[in-house]
Amino acid sequence: MGQKTNPTGFRLAVRRNWQSRWFARKKDFAKLLHEDQIIRSMLMEKLKQASVPRIFIERAGNRVRVKIFTARPGIVIGKKGQEVENMKVALGKLTGKEVLLDIQEVKKPEIEAQLVAESVALQLERRIAFRRAIKKSIQTAMSLGIDGIKIQCSGRLGGTDIARREWQRQGRIPLHTLRENIDYGFAEAQTLWGKIGVKCWICKKDESN
C-alpha cells in the first residue's frame, strides 16, 4: 500500500519554505500558532474572489507582517486602498498587535497548483463535467511551459452512487525527488451530492521558481 505524504511538508527545508516565520518560547507557541490559523482563515474567507494561493506570516516583537499572494491585487487593495486599511484594523483588533500588510501579485495564476485546484472545484460546483474541467486546466498549464501536471478528483463524480477517484496527468511528476520544484494544491467542491476533493500537483521548471 502506498504511503502518502504532503508534497509541501515533504520538501520543507529542502525545496520549500515555511508559510510562517517566527520564533516563540514553549508557553507562547500554541497561542501564536492558533493566531496564525485564525488570520489565515479570516483572510481566505474575506478574499474568496481574489484568487489567493497562500498567505505568509512573519512576526517580530509586537509586529505581525502578513504577505498576501494574489492573482487579483485590485480586489484585495480596493478603492484607494480602503480594503487594505479595513483588513489592517480587523486584524489589529483580532491580534492586539501592530499589523503590516503586503500585497504581492501572482504573475501566472494558471500554474499555481492551489489556484488550479480551486478553479476545477469551482467548475464542478457549476456542474461542468469533471473530465472536461481537468483537461482544460491541464492544457492551459502545459501551454505555459511547465514540466508536468497531475489533477485528481475524488468523490461522487457526476452524481454517481459510488464514490471513486479519477485523475489525469501530462508531462513528468517525479514526486519522490526532493530536488524537483513540485507545487501542490487542494480544494473542495461542495456539490448537490456531497463534497468532491480536488488535488493538483505541478512540476515547474527551475527558472519559474
From TrEMBL:
| GO MF, one annotated term | mRNA binding
Under the heading InterPro entries, the entry gives: KH_dom, KH_dom-like_a/b, KH_dom_type_2, KH_sf_prok-type, Ribosomal_S3_C_sf, Ribosomal_uS3, Ribosomal_uS3_bac-typ, Ribosomal_uS3_C
Q: Which keywords does this Swiss-Prot/TrEMBL entry list?
A: Ribonucleoprotein, Ribosomal protein, RNA-binding, rRNA-binding
Task: Kindly provide the name given to this protein in its UniProt entry.
Answer: Small ribosomal subunit protein uS3
Q: What processes does the entry annotate via GO biological process terms?
A: translation
Its ancestry begins with: Bacteria, Pseudomonadati, Verrucomicrobiota, Opitutia, Opitutales
Ranges for domain KH type-2:
39-107
Kindly list the GO CC terms recorded for this protein: cytosolic small ribosomal subunit
SUPFAM superfamilies in alphabetical order: Prokaryotic type KH domain (KH-domain type II) (SSF54814), Ribosomal protein S3 C-terminal domain (SSF54821)
- What's this protein's family per the entry? Belongs to the universal ribosomal protein uS3 family.
Q: How does it assemble?
A: Part of the 30S ribosomal subunit. Forms a tight complex with proteins S10 and S14.
For this protein, the record's PROSITE patterns field holds: KH_TYPE_2, RIBOSOMAL_S3
Organism for this UniProt entry: Lacunisphaera limnophila
Recorded superkingdom:
Bacteria
Q: Which NCBIfam families match?
A: rpsC_bact (TIGR01009)
Its biological purpose is as follows: Binds the lower part of the 30S subunit head. Binds mRNA in the 70S ribosome, positioning it for translation.
Q: Which Pfam families match?
A: KH_2, Ribosomal_S3_C
